[in-house]
Amino acid sequence: MADVETWDLLDEQGDPTGEVHRRGGPGWPPGRFHLMVATCVVRSDGLILLTRRAATKTFPFAWEIPGGSVLAGETGIQAAVREVREETGLVLDEGTLERVGRGVESASFLDVHVATVPGRPRLVLDPAEVDDAAWVTWADVDAHRAAGRMPAPWVGCFAALWPDLARKVAEAAG
User: Fold this and answer.
1) Hey, which end of the chain has fewer CB within 10 Å, N or C?
2) Residue 12: inside a domain, yes or no?
3) In contact, 55 and 21? CB cutoff 8 Å
4) Is residue 9 part of a domain?
5) Where is the composition biased (Acidic residues) (predicted)?
6) Alpha carbon distance, N-terminus to C-terminus of the chain
């Protein structure tokens, strides 16, 4: 992760405004949003990658689908590929990502994707980002969500997309 992240700002419809904002900077403009991404990575055996947030991050030790903020100048797909690579060492082909939909939170949109990977890829976790990772079933993912073991803001963003995400994961798992 860069020392200072800068985000492109979007309006309420998700369209770029031409404005940028520094992460954590003062004066968040009213009616503006930034874009975040999450990628549900599905192995060829149908298992899904969950990562556990590092102790130093917000929502420490919460389990999540890999993701993060889209940086200024990036597309959502580019950010999804970058975030998965930074956090887990997995290199995804942009063409393997399928967008499920967009969730919304108070000042951010969350684009959710599904990507498939062959075999049993080796993970190389970034300890500043990820404390642990596991390949789990969809039932396990859903159990983490239902038990409150995922970051609350993301759970809210995922809520409307959850049925579509479950269907796309099942399709990806074959």
Assistant:
1) C
2) no
3) no
4) no
5) 1-14
6) 34
On whether the CB atoms of residues 61 and 134 are closer than 8 A, the answer is: no
Averaged pLDDT in 10-residue chunks for the chain of 174 residues: 81 96 93 96 96 95 96 97 97 95 92 96 96 97 94 86 94 86
Query: DSSP readout, 9-58?
Result: EE-TTS-EEEEEEETT-S-PPTT-BEEEEEEEEEETTS-EEEEEE-TTSS
Question: Which residues share a beta bridge with 99?
Answer: 113
**DSSP annotation of 46:** S
Instruction: Check if the beta carbon of residue 63 is closer than 8 Å to that of residue 52.
Output: yes
> Which element (helix H / strand E) includes 96?
none
Find where tokens 């596991």 sit.
134
Cβ count within 10 A of residue 25: 12
What is the pTM assigned to this prediction? 0.93
In a domain, 22, yes or no: no
How many residues are given for the chain? 174
d(CA 132, CA 126): 9
d(CA 142, CA 50): 11
Residues 6+ apart with CB under 8 A from 21: 6, 7, 9, 28, 29, 32, 34
Domain hosting residue 122, numbered range: 32-173
